[in-house]
Design goal:
The chain is α/β, with parallel strands linked by helices. It is built from ten helices and nine strands. Helix 7 crosses helix 8 (151-163) and helix 9 packs antiparallel against helix 10. Bound molecules: adenosine monophosphate.
């Protein structure tokens, strides 16, 4: 596996690439797991060359302690990638990603950065937009792969890609879960065994919501209350927020009393919860 940390090496690699080849990029922040592996495998199937990047992006953290505590294990990641047959790893320095100042740019994301996760984590999506745009600029991939675990991020990245002079294709991949239903995440590495077991309640609550909507006309206020109770009663988790949105535009469903199944539109539910100081997120199409 070639580990590339400067642009000259990347450009030398690019010179060897045959015309008409498809270069796929899988951006990650490391602490790799099977969720990342699924993205890489899909990219390997669809592209002539796949480059995986590892960069813990400081500008997408709204909380410096969260940034400092973000799990990192370079050696393990390298072995993981080798096991997947990855041939190119891009591991840029902060200086290469942010040559002037470690600061997010300001993108017009049509208000997408202000909703849901964006409202809870101000500046987060501007940081995401900045880092993916820089990766696209440096590596010029034809495609980039992102997981629906970060549903809203996929929309943000699509917007960033569409604003580029040479737009690239953004491919989204389904959420990879533990057998318990817990969405795989680098942050899970920081959970104790008890917290991890309890964290499965997030997916249980989402599945409950899906079932509930099918059997009777439940409004957001009641569904949220029941979902909160499932998660909070796991003993080790505290719900931060549960939101119901229209899946096609991520607009919040404002009425608290109108049954969710009456809209005749796809409804996506977003959950965030804390296990100690570890923030977990998940989302699911409930109707
Ligand atoms: P991260 O390293 O957490 O920034 O994630 C890198 C990419 O992997 C993002 O596109 C995530 O959405 C994706 N990803 C992380 N966890 C999962 C998962 N459980 N299933 C699918 N994709 C995931």
């Amino acid at each position: 596996m070639k580990i590339i940390d400067d642009l000259n090496s990347w450009n030398s690699f690019k010179k060897t690439v045959k015309k008409g080849s498809i270069i796929g990029l899988v951006p990650t922040m490391g602490a790799l797991h099977d969720g990342h592996a699924a993205l890489i495998k899909k990219a390997q199937k669809e592209c002539s060359h796949v480059v995986t990047s590892i960069f813990i992006n400081p500008t997408q953290f709204d909380n410096s302690i969260d940034f400092q505590n973000y799990p990192s294990n370079s050696e393990k990641d390298i072995q993981f990638l080798k096991g997947l047959g990855v041939t190119l790893l891009f591991k840029p320095s902060e200086k290469l990603m942010y040559p002037y100042e470690i600061k997010a740019s300001n993108y017009d994301l049509n208000g997408l950065d202000k909703k849901l996760e964006g409202a809870l984590r101000p500046g987060h999506f501007q940081g995401v937009a900045t880092v993916v745009d820089r990766l696209f600029e440096l590596l010029e991939p034809d495609r980039a792969y992102f997981g629906l675990k970060d549903f809203q991020q996929v929309e943000v990245v699509k917007k960033v890609a569409s604003m580029r002079k040479n737009p690239l294709k953004i491919v989204s991949c389904r959420v990879v879960r533990e057998d318990s239903g817990l969405a795989k995440s680098s942050r899970n590495f920081r959970l104790s065994a008890k917290q991890k077991k309890a964290a499965a309640s997030i997916f249980q609550a989402l599945k409950f919501a899906e079932k509930e909507i099918k059997i009777f006309p439940i409004p957001p206020i009641a569904l949220e209350r029941e979902m909160k109770s499932i998660i909070n009663s796991s003993g080790f988790l505290k719900v931060e927020q549960i939101e119901f949105v229209f899946a096609d535009n991520l607009d919040l469903i404002k009425s608290q009393d109108y049954p969710l199944d009456h809209y005749q539109r796809d409804v996506q539910c977003f959950v965030s919860a804390f296990a100690g100081d570890v923030r977990l997120i998940d989302n699911y199409r409930i109707s």
